[in-house]
Write a structure and sequence with these properties.
heterodimer; A: about 375 residues; alpha/beta; GMP Synthetase, Chain A, domain 3; eight-stranded mixed β-sheet; four-stranded mixed β-sheet; 11 helices; B: about 375 residues; mainly alpha; Amino acid/polyamine transporter I; 16 helices; about 0% strand
């Protein structure tokens, strides 16, 4: 009888193994790492977009280690179908790491492409979004100097830029969240090319209104926007330091060590006021004058100098958002919505944002001076 | 082994596990969305209030049924509400349990098809699950209870999964606390009733507890409160991640919650959840299915409840294939939610009032 049970048990286990009959080896799949979305260069209205996928070839004898396929398409799902006809293996989008939008496609609006990504259960919610100067197809065919795949390179460098408080970190899920949340407009990292060939620069921010790209901010403005949003991580900040009777300018550099952003709203005489206090923790990483910096009074002077320089950047960035663009990419609306729901108008928030008074207060605390006197 | 009841018996500890296990099922998938559609950022308060309310109902149920420790569902309802009504209620419960089992299986099928086996025909998956249900219940309540006892440890993994996306959450999404208004918070509790559903099986299973003691009331209420705490934290963390605006567009917040971060080692955290969740749902399925079989045996006075498992299996199989698509399934499941309001709320209160009027004498008929 025991033998019968054993045979039955083995048969049962075999049944489970039968689940593997249609299993797919990774080698049989065409695993997409990056997707590029551009407007089509043809005048045809039938296929207004050009979708590009970048993937590793895997096969050892293949002439290239990676390849790109492109197709004109009506939409992303339409492109899935057309690209499959070109591919020699089953295309899998389940490992997509990067979605790059060409500037023109981003200006037209990107939410129409997001739906196909959100609807697929295995499409990664953490796939990173970026907008590129020019066209996405050009970016996906670049061979970066230190990585085989541009998608892998950008996947890492977007995170690194965000860690150095230079560019935002936007995933599929985060974009969808900010697009749907009232009182904040989305931002996406913006990729540019350096003068040297093959060098890609991730340090700018693409500003969106709804799902449409409206402006790009660079350098200190990009960093200032992240600081305003409370995304203060690492990164160096250099401010001018005036020393009497010196021919050359002197500078103080600090390295951010995180920080806080506190937003308070109040209505005074019917006007909306925002008190935005930003506290930044920092380490002194450079003081170009030969004087000693090992003095608490001097450190206070440094802290004030850096705080004032940062405040100027923040104010300048706010002016762009409030006066030029009338677009709340910081997310003040979320706070107004909480504190003053009777005033908050979700449909006209950006207009309300452009008229409100924002009072900035920046505090920098230098907690370490390094290991030199 | 000596067994007091032909269909098996359970310990008091197993009854607490049954309560927890049957409550955590398919409802958790879309709970935060359906509640936040009404109560916005205060959905977690609605869930908390509903849980507290249900724990009071649980106290009422235990307080009522322990007056009739030797009577089964049909017998004590016969005593309290008259025999014809008792038969009517019992048959209605059988229909409810069968429909609920089919709904649970279909929800499980939806998840398996979406995340794991997208090309396997629905009928094949359904057949496997229905056969599993039959196999589970054919040896009686003790086996079903033990299965759930083993699965109980899986719930620990569930609790840990809440931590996964916590670094991505933003507390601002939960503010202003109470801002949606008391009316919305209370209204929001109603759709969460389905997620809490299932605890009413204790009306059926109480009589089969072998070591009934005075602590049953306390621990049963604590079981409901544990589920409430788990649901409240789950909903609060999902609102903190998505915010009420985005949440209304997310079909399965519990799954999407796990897709929000890159997790080391387990790249596909949502698949990890699906596997554990599937087992928990199979436990719920067994408990709900057996309650229908058990009551059928009582009504039709047959020797074994398992006989009805074979009779209902093809019906459940066909019912699982009835919904045309996911929206249709969600629509149909809302009717199960209404039936649950009757069996989990109206009936216990009615029985409680009648037990106060008629006292705790019971019918003293021989247990089936």
């Amino acid at each position: 009888m025991r033998k019968v049970y054993k045979i039955l048990l083995v048969s049962l286990c075999m049944l489970v193994v039968s689940g593997c009959w249609d299993q797919k080896d990774l080698e049989k799949l065409l695993i997409v790492y990056g997707v590029g979305i551009d407007t089509s260069l043809n005048e045809s209205t039938d296929s207004p977009y050009l979708i590009t996928i970048g993937f590793p070839t895997i096969i050892e004898d293949a002439p290239d280690k990676k390849m790109e396929y492109s197709t004109p398409a009506k939409s992303l799902a339409d492109a899935y179908d057309r690209l499959q006809r070109k591919a020699y293996r089953e295309i899998s989008y389940d490992n997509t790491r990067l979605i790059v939008f060409g500037e023109e496609a981003a200006t037209l609006g990107i939410i129409r492409h997001v739906d196909a990504m959100l609807r697929a259960p295995l499409f990664p919610g953490t796939a990173r979004f970026a907008v590129v100067e020019g066209r996405a197809i050009d970016l996906l065919s670049v061979v970066p100097p230190v990585s085989l795949f541009v998608s892998t390179f950008l996947f890492e460098s977007i995170q690194q830029s965000n860690m150095s408080t230079s560019a935002p970190f936007t995933t599929l899920r985060r974009f969808h969240n900010e697009f749907n949340t009232k009182g904040i407009e989305p931002i996406v990292p913006y990729i540019t090319y350096a003068a040297e060939p093959g060098i890609i620069y991730v340090g700018c921010t693409a500003l969106f209104q709804g799902d449409k790209l409206i402006e790009v901010i660079h350098g200190n403005h990009s960093r200032a926007l992240l600081i305003l949003r409370g995304e203060i991580k690492n990164g160096y900040y250099t401010a001018k330091y005036q020393v009497e009777n010196e021919e050359l300018d002197n500078f103080i550099s600090v390295r951010f060590q995180g920080g806080k952003s506190k937003i308070r709203t109040e209505v005074i005489d019917g006007e909306l006021n925002i008190n935005h206090k930003i506290s930044i923790n920092a380490i002194l990483s450079e003081f170009t004058d030969y004087e000693s910096a090992f003095d608490s009074e001097k450190l206070k002077v440094f802290e004030r100098a850096v705080a004032e320089a940062i405040k100027r950047d923040l104010q300048s960035t706010l002016n762009i958002l409030q006066k030029t663009l009338k677009n709340d990419n910081v997310g003040y609306g979320r706070y107004v919505r909480i504190k003053h729901p009777e005033i908050f108008d979700p449909e006209n928030w950006n207009e309300q944002f452009s008229h409100m008074n924002i009072h900035l207060e920046v505090e920098v605390t230098i907690s370490e001076v390094g290991i030199t006197h | 082994m000596y067994r007091k009841y032909a269909n098996g018996e359970i310990t008091a500890l197993q009854s607490y596990i049954i309560i927890i296990s049957i409550m955590i099922g398919t409802g958790i998938l879309g709970l935060s969305r359906v509640v936040s559609d009404i109560a916005q950022q205060d959905a977690w308060i609605s869930v908390l209030l509903n849980g507290i309310f249900i724990s009071i109902i649980m106290a009422v149920i235990i307080h009522t049924v322990r007056k009739y420790p030797e009577d089964n569902f049909l017998q004590y309802i016969s005593y309290l509400l008259s025999k014809p009504i008792a038969y009517l209620v019992t048959i209605a419960y059988i229909i409810y349990a069968t429909l609920a089992t089919a709904t649970i299986i279909r929800f499980l099928l939806e998840m398996i098809r979406t995340w794991l086996l997208e090309t396997t025909p629905m009928a094949i998956l359904s057949l496997i699950l229905v056969l599993t249900a039959v196999y589970m219940v054919k040896n009686g309540l003790t086996i079903v209870a033990r299965f759930n006892e083993v699965l109980f440890f899986y719930l620990i993994v569930f609790i840990l999964l809440i931590l996964v996306a916590l670094p991505e959450t933003q507390l601002i999404n939960l503010r202003p606390v109470g801002g949606s208004g008391i009316k919305s918070i209370i209204k929001g509790a109603i759709p969460s009733f389905y997620a809490f559903g299932g605890y009413e099986v204790i009306l059926v299973y109480y009589t089969y507890i072998s070591d009934k003691n005075t602590k049953i009331l306390k621990y049963s209420v604590l079981s409901v409160l544990s589920v409430t705490l788990f649901y409240t934290i789950t909903v609060a963390s999902q609102i903190a991640l998505f915010g009420p605006d985005e949440l209304s567009r997310v079909l399965y917040p519990s799954m999407n919650y796990l897709r929000a971060v890159d997790f080391p080692v387990f790249e596909r955290m949502e698949l990890f959840f699906t596997v554990f969740w599937s087992f928990t749902v199979i436990g719920t399925m067994g408990l709900q299915f057996f309650s229908g079989c058990l009551l059928s045996q009582i009504v039709f006075k047959t020797k074994k409840a398992a006989t009805f498992a074979y009779i209902y299996a093809p019906i459940i199989f066909m019912l699982t294939l009835y919904p045309k698509n996911t929206p249709h399934l969600v629509e149909l499941s809302s009717y199960i939610g209404y039936m649950n309001i009757f069996f989990g709320l109206i009936l216990p209160l009615l029985l409680f009032i009648m037990s106060l009027i008629r006292g705790g004498k019971g019918s003293n008929e021989k247990s089936v």
